[in-house]
């Protein structure tokens, strides 16, 4: 049930972002945001290839081929980070990365409150909030700020 609840929260975050509508570019600040959200993806993507066995331990055991899933998700993170920095791919990359963050979240739930590589993983509520924030930042990096609700003038 915890996997469903947390995944539903993340899916609703993505849907809400587009329900409120994306405004578009906000200049240099948006470029800076793209770099900021791409850097952890680059680091994590490399880590997926250099510490595959360690990261496979946080994939829930009901998933088959856990090491392969780690490598595939690492490749997706690296490709997404590159896509964020290439203007022709920025929007698509931000949406794909937001969806990837939803798909990989069961591993974060499974690893909650455990020690992985000597680091204590945050609890599910904390990780969920962090993931929601990161997804919103990814979408803002690609699509801009959600629009303000339109005001009706009389």
Please give a quick description of this structure:
With 154 residues, the protein is mainly α. The protein contains seven helices and two strands.
What features would you describe in this structure?
The chain has 154 residues and is mostly helical. The protein has one domain. It has seven helices and two strands. Strands 1-2 form a two-stranded antiparallel ribbon. Helix 1 packs antiparallel against helix 5 (90-103), helix 1 runs parallel beside helix 7 and helix 2 (28-50) runs antiparallel to helix 4 (66-85). The model has no long low-confidence stretch (mean pLDDT 87).
- N→C terminal distance: 48 Å
Shape: globular
Radius of gyration, in Å, reads: 17 Å
Protein structure class: mainly alpha
| Strand residues, percent | under 5%
Task: State the total count of DSSP E strands.
Answer: 2
Largest sheet: 2 strands, antiparallel
SSE order in H/E notation? HHHHHHEEH
* Count of individual domains: 1
Mean pLDDT: 87
Q: What strand line-up does the widest sheet have? A: 1-2
Low-confidence stretches: none
Percent helix, as a range, is: 55-70%
């Amino acid at each position: 049930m915890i996997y469903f609840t947390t995944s539903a929260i993340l899916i609703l975050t993505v849907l809400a972002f587009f329900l409120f509508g994306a405004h578009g570019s906000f200049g240099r600040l948006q470029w800076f945001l793209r770099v900021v959200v791409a850097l952890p993806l680059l680091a994590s993507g490399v880590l997926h290839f250099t510490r595959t066995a360690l990261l496979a331990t946080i994939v829930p055991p009901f998933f088959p081929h856990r090491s392969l899933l780690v490598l595939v998700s690492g490749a997706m993170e690296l490709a997404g980070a590159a896509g964020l920095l290439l203007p022709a791919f920025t929007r698509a990359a931000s949406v794909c990365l937001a969806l990837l963050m939803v798909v990989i979240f069961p591993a974060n739930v499974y690893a909650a409150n455990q020690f992985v590589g000597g680091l204590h993983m945050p609890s599910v509520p904390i990780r969920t909030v962090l993931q929601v924030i990161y997804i919103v930042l990814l979408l803002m990096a690609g699509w801009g700020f959600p629009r303000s609700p339109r005001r009706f003038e009389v």
